[in-house]
Amino acid sequence: MVAARVAAVLIAMMTLAGFWSARAEEAQETAFAALKSEIWPVAEREGVSRETFDAAFAGLEPDPEVLRLANRQPEFTLTATQYIDRIITPARIADGKAAYLRYEAKLKVLERRYGVSRYVLVAIWGAESDFGNKQGSWAVFRSLATLATAGRRADFWKTQFVEALKIVENQRISPDKLSGSWAGAMGHTQFIPSTYNKFGVSFSGKPRGDIWDNPADALASTANYLAQSGWQRGRTWGYAVRLPESFGAADEMKASALPLKSWRKLGVERDTGGRFPKPNEPARLFLPGKTNPFTANKSNVSAFLTIANFDVIKKYNNSDLYALAVGLLADRLAAELSWR
User: Fold this and answer.
1) pTM of the predicted model, to two decimals?
2) pLDDT digit string, tens, across residues 290-324
3) What own/partner pairs with CB < 8 Å and gap ≥ 24 does 115-118 have?
């Protein structure tokens, strides 16, 4: 008797779940239809043909996995140590050195042209797509439509959808050629559509380079983006530092931008020793965690003074941990390659 009642409850629950699942799918389909009606006038004003527009929406359906991933971004769910360990691995360092050597001549050209550190460019390439090996296989239009109808920042994703349409229109390619991350980022250095349309260049300097199949174009586009975002030529991103034991106001001072010489007067020292190259340069204290996420000499460094270029890296991905990981990976590659 009890077993029969349990079975009946389970059947009822499954029926109810199926009902709500069907209602959710129906709501998503309705939302997609509304999205299509809303976006077409905007796309038309931007020069997108009806043929391109209809091809992008053909067979389009929501992707629930995209929404799941949107709520579990590693920059905001992992500890500092976990995140850095994911980005900076022995394999990535080895692959980064090989990638650098393969494109060294072009990287030096880009550094001269845009002023952006060639090691930072390689570090971003590694962090974003593992040097092109993991560009993503998500259908860009499906991901963007899903986020535009069910995710946060709907207006942002609608804009990205239109920007992706412009890529298809301008390059005369099929919409299914656009693939990338679950969030619509594409190519070797993972540009979202609007960033590509604004900053994408070829290695030769012409607009709209091939960031999907040509690493040199992707690196040039990244250098152009960082340069136009305010990268300071010849400057680093920050310094690993040691705090004195008496430094009791760390939490209150994390948001303070003080000249490096003022930090030094407070007893903050570079982990490598020596003075700061530009003592008047403003810097902020960044404490990523209680333990050291990464240092070349395995010492107990857990604090960093970040300067302007750190914030420029954050414009690529608005995460302190991302900017730190890129900076540390760039420093590690520079240190190891300098011994050649």
Assistant:
1) 0.86
2) 444 344 333 334 899 999 999 999 999 999 999 99
3) 115/227, 115/231, 115/232, 115/233, 115/234, 116/222, 116/223, 116/226, 116/227, 116/231, 116/233, 117/236, 117/330, 117/334
